[in-house]
Design goal:
The chain is α/β, with parallel strands linked by helices. It is built from eight helices and nine strands.
Length: 227
């Protein structure tokens, strides 16, 4: 989809929108008064008291297991974003790297067998201060190299699901929570504006048996026309 847009220019607000189908402004946010993750998020404003059903919980009601691989701990179930998942697999540290995330994801997928499963993870390597793939070059060049780290790990997943026993029954959706600004409209990083550099995102859907094609219209219109 060449014209996909994120519902917000920051991570938590986008992911909770994906999980609930609501704009973050329609959800209930309040301060965290407990101390999950050794108190790292105490006082943070999160949707942990919002009663909206998350997609994982709805799937669970239909008998579908769900797994959330969590490198960004703020997306975990205790803080409200990742509520409803059957299983939660956290990386060893907050902002866990893509190679650890992909190992957790692939290992769990291999152990699943033939029953239905919904999996979600968030690869957070492309993020300021852009130092995971070297510190030489401009911030933009360093950001692109961090994107390459994610591409390398996604290649492992693509190779796995290309196997005959998975190729006919796995649907893969790859997107982004937001973009990143590098001086456009006088801003850096994200969460500051709603300009295209922050809300226009990649969106790829890999469907069994579907021929690759580019969809230039909005997703809703394509669905109404029988996508």
């Amino acid at each position: 989809f060449t014209n996909a847009r994120s519902p917000s220019p920051s991570t938590v607000t986008t992911i909770i929108s994906i999980f609930t189908g609501k704009y973050y402004s329609s959800l209930y946010w309040s301060a965290v008064d407990a101390t999950p993750f050794k108190g790292m998020f105490k006082g943070a404003i999160m949707p942990h008291r919002d009663p909206s059903p998350r997609i994982a919980a709805l799937l669970g009601m239909a008998g579908v297991k769900s797994v959330h691989v969590v490198p960004l701990w703020g997306l975990g179930r205790e803080l409200g974003v990742g509520q409803g998942f059957s299983e939660e697999l956290l990386t060893k540290r907050d902002y866990g790297h893509a190679d650890e995330v992909m190992k957790l994801l692939i290992d769990r997928l291999e152990a699943q067998g033939g029953s239905p499963l919904f999996m979600y993870s968030h690869l957070v390597d492309p993020h300021a201060p852009y130092d995971l793939a070297g510190t030489h070059g401009t911030e933009y060049e360093r950001y692109l190299r961090e994107m390459e780290l994610v591409d390398r790990e996604l290649a492992k997943l693509l190779q796995m699901i290309a196997a005959p026993d998975l190729a006919k029954r796995v649907i893969l959706i790859v997107s982004a929570d937001h973009g990143e600004a590098f001086g456009e409209h006088g801003t850096q990083y994200h969460a500051l504006t709603l300009y295209e550099e922050l809300v226009r995102v990649p969106l790829y859907v890999v469907l069994p048996g579907a021929e690759p094609r580019s969809i230039d219209g909005c997703a809703r219109k394509q669905t109404e026309e029988g996508f």
